[in-house]
Amino acid sequence: MDRKIEKNYWSRKRILTISGIAGIFILLGAALKFASGNSKLNVDAERITISEVTRNTFQEFIPVNGIVMPVTIIYLDAIEGGRVEEKFVEDGSFIKKGQPILRMSNTDLELSLANQETAVFEVLTQMQNTKNNAVQNTIQQLNQKADVDNALIEAERVYNLNKHLYEEKVIGLQEFKASENNYNYQVNRKKLNAQTLKQDEVSNSQQISQMGASYARMQNALQLMRRKVGDLVVRAPVDGQLTSLDAEIGQSKNRGERLGQIDVLSGYKVRVDIDEHYISRVMIGQLGEGNLGSKTFKLQVKKVYTQVNNGRFQVDMEFADAVPEGIRRGQTIQIRLALSDETEALLVAKGGFFQVTGGNWIFKLNNDGSRAYKVDLQLGRQNPDYYEVISGLKPGEKVVTSSYENYGDMQELVLKR
Fold first, then answer.
1. Strand partners, 136
2. Calpha distance 103→86 (Å, rounded)
3. What is the β-pairing status of strands 312-319 and 94-95?
4. What is the residue-wise DSSP string for 37-54?
5. CA–CA separation, 81 vs 102, rounded Å?
6. Whether domain 39-58+343-416 has CATH 3.30.300.30
7. Which of 33, 94, 269, 392 has a C-alpha 20 to 30 A away from that of 235?
8. CA proximity to 62, closest of 304, 382, 309, 401
């Protein structure tokens, strides 16, 4: 009699197949869970920085360093070259306008001055001789005029007498004509003498005038030469403090070479170096704020130097109010230079998170502060303390602002306290 053999449903092969399929589903579920952003990392809360998002006044500014300088600086350059013979004051001295600072020598200039003085003396002597000759010539002409006038008077008397005698037939025609010719000759002679005197007067006047003009030009040249020699003594053009004096006895200085400078102590300004990135955003009139000890003061941009050197440009800032007490030339001051007006904005503190996220996302804490989740973020302006939040966060929310370098691709932080 045949016996019915019952079939085993849970065979080894079937069990292995079902186990394999289940394992695949488990792996797929884990992968989906990881891909859905639920990867977690345990983080010690005391080792991270948590900041609260706030709404407050915001001003975009940059920290810059400036050097205190006098408002007015007068540079001393060598107007004429020469050898330094004597120094009357030392670097750092307070000097008055016109006070001698140093004396130089220049033999070429001194020789030129001597030659110019000699030439002027020669022209003066020649002009004096010309005047004397003109006076003597005038005297001779006047003597000659006196003779001519006397001869004319005598010729006119004889002519008039002979004319009457001729009409009375006392003398002949020949004698009358001789007196008439002599009279006409003396008249023409007087006219010629008067013309000669006038021409001599004009000629002498022109000659003296030309020599006077030449003498005046040479006098001007002599005065200029004397000033050039006088410039060998360098004098203070204004009251102030002598600084950066670069001249020693025996040293040769070329024309135009810088000798030093005078600081006019009527006020101070601050010369500031700024990164060229901000050159289009710095304008005259912008304000900055600085600190000296416990006191805060405001400064205003007065001049912008657009020339860029080594990636930086310079501006001059002056104190908006009274100059702080105790400030000194050469002192370094840190200034917060405002690039915008104060406005109300949503703010988040600056931190190391930006280097990883680029400001595109951030870890935001949940209500009880036990976890932090990755959320999208949009930032706007910034200053050294805060970023302006455009979207992604609300006032009062807390975020992790410390560095994210060790978080990899984690989507969630579990905060352990």
1. none
2. 5
3. unpaired
4. T--EEEEEGGGS-EEE-E
5. 13
6. no
7. 269
8. 382
